[in-house]
């Protein structure tokens, strides 16, 4: 038998191998270095298809989502309730509108401060007393209207309601905390929250009008306050899903964070789209003797946005959010031309309702992408404040858009339907601002030496 050919036999324990064997490859967490240490590897992103069912399998998410929905529903009720309570009692829609405008201005100032306290001390510790103070303002407004108190007391009372916390931002902060390692699921969660926003602003005004006209004028404010308190208490009770408080930090306001100021300018322009569209649609319906149907027509716009938001959350999005954002804004600007063209070509509300339904489908994807960018650019521990600043930008844009839309209806050149050009111009401005914003360079990983 040749010396280099040997019969195979079992190798005893501890004996060296006679022939080299095919080695097994083990899954390693990094690449070996000469020193024996391993370089960290980037975690692979989740590849599962986004699913709302998978979202709510996370313990505690159903409870805080329910609380956040209840707490947000009155946000679509309070303005309508205040107008329907003040205007008949004082025989002045101008006074009622001025009181509501004062409340919006107070919210723009106070809400970011409330959100900063939420970030520092936790949602439960701040949201409950802030809500209680807002309810005191609501009750004071009811008392002042009922007692025929001086007009200035109405402004002061309604301004006190500005301490109500941004519960939509609090819910999104919880999702961001729970899903920080799962971008696809976080996209689905943000889409769900945007759909809830649209649902609340679709149902809230209708519910407020029903309560104030069917029961008594103060019913909308009182019921809205009760629902708000219930929702905040349910949300605050879910401590397991609450993001940890950041405490007092030396980090500056999110307004100074890179990329945030330009994004807030876009939010301001988007708010002008919503504010002007509402006023112009109501004026158009009133001009054709169908003012009572204006709320239903605007509700269809919110319904289109709600449906699009749910569909947007169920698909996997490709590429970073800052590249998708201009595309969403371009779609919004294009679809906003449909109400303008429809109103100019026909006097019936039915085609306009269909145009608003389709135009609304660009709203939720745009808002979801914008909120994702806010979450990316806001410094850690300041997420509630960052998202509340975005809402403040929207409110400012809504106020300005409402004023500009009303001016175009009354004093603009040509027929009143030219007012529908304001939402188109505002959406185009938002697109231009997004394209003109400086591009943020992605962070480069540099291993420490």
From TrEMBL:
Residues 1-51 are annotated as: Disordered. InterPro entries: MFS (IPR011701), MFS_trans_sf (IPR036259). Gene3D superfamilies: MFS general substrate transporter like domains (1.20.1250.20). The chain crosses the membrane at residues 63-87, 93-114, 126-145, 222-241, 262-285, 291-313, 325-343, 349-374, 386-408, 420-437. Residues 12-21 have a biased composition (Basic and acidic residues). Keywords: Membrane, Transmembrane, Transmembrane helix. The keyword Membrane applies. This is MFS transporter. It comes from Streptomyces heilongjiangensis. The lineage of its organism: Bacteria, Bacillati, Actinomycetota, Actinomycetes, Kitasatosporales.
């Amino acid at each position: 038998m040749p010396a280099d050919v040997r019969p195979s036999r079992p190798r005893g324990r501890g004996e060296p191998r006679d022939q080299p064997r095919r080695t097994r490859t083990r899954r390693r967490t990094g690449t070996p270095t000469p020193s024996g240490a391993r370089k960290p590897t980037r975690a692979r992103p989740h590849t599962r298809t986004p699913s709302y069912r998978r979202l709510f399998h996370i313990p505690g998410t159903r409870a805080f989502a329910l609380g956040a929905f209840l707490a947000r529903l009155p946000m679509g009720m309070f303005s309508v309730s205040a107008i329907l309570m003040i205007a008949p009692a004082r025989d002045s829609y101008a006074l009622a509108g001025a009181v509501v405008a004062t409340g919006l201005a107070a919210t723009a100032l106070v809400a970011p401060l409330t959100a900063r306290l939420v970030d520092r001390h936790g949602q439960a510790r701040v949201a409950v007393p802030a809500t209680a103070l807002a309810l005191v303002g609501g009750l004071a407004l009811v008392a002042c209207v009922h007692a025929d108190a001086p007009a200035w007391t109405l402004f002061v009372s309604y301004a006190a309601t500005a301490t109500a916390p941004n519960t939509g931002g609090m819910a999104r902060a919880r999702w961001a905390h729970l899903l920080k390692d799962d971008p696809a699921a976080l996209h689905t969660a943000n889409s769900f929250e945007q759909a809830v926003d649209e649902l609340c602003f679709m149902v809230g005004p209708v519910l407020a009008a029903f309560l104030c006209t069917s029961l008594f004028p103060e019913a909308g404010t009182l019921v809205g306050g009760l629902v708000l308190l219930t929702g905040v208490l349910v949300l605050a009770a879910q401590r397991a899903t609450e993001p940890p408080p950041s405490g007092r930090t030396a980090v500056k306001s999110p307004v100074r964070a890179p990329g945030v100021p330009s994004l807030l300018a876009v939010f301001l322009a988007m708010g002008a789209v919503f504010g002007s569209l509402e006023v112009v649609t109501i004026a158009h319906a009133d001009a054709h003797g169908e003012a009572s149907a204006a709320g239903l027509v605007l509700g269809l716009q919110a319904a289109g946005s709600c449906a699009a938001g749910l569909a947007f959350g169920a698909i996997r999005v490709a590429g970073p959010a800052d590249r998708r954002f201009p595309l969403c804004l371009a779609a919004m600007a294009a679809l906003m031309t449909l109400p303008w063209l429809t109103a100019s070509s026909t006097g019936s509300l039915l085609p306009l309702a269909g145009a608003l339904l389709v135009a609304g489908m660009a709203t939720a994807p745009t808002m979801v992408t914008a909120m994702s960018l806010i979450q990316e650019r806001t410094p850690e521990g300041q997420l509630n404040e960052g998202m509340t600043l975005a809402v403040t930008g929207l409110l400012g844009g809504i106020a300005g858009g409402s004023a500009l839309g009303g001016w175009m209806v009354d004093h603009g050149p040509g027929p009143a339907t030219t007012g529908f050009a304001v939402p188109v111009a505002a959406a185009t401005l938002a697109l231009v601002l997004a394209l003109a914003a400086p591009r943020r360079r992605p962070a480069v990983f540099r291993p420490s030496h």
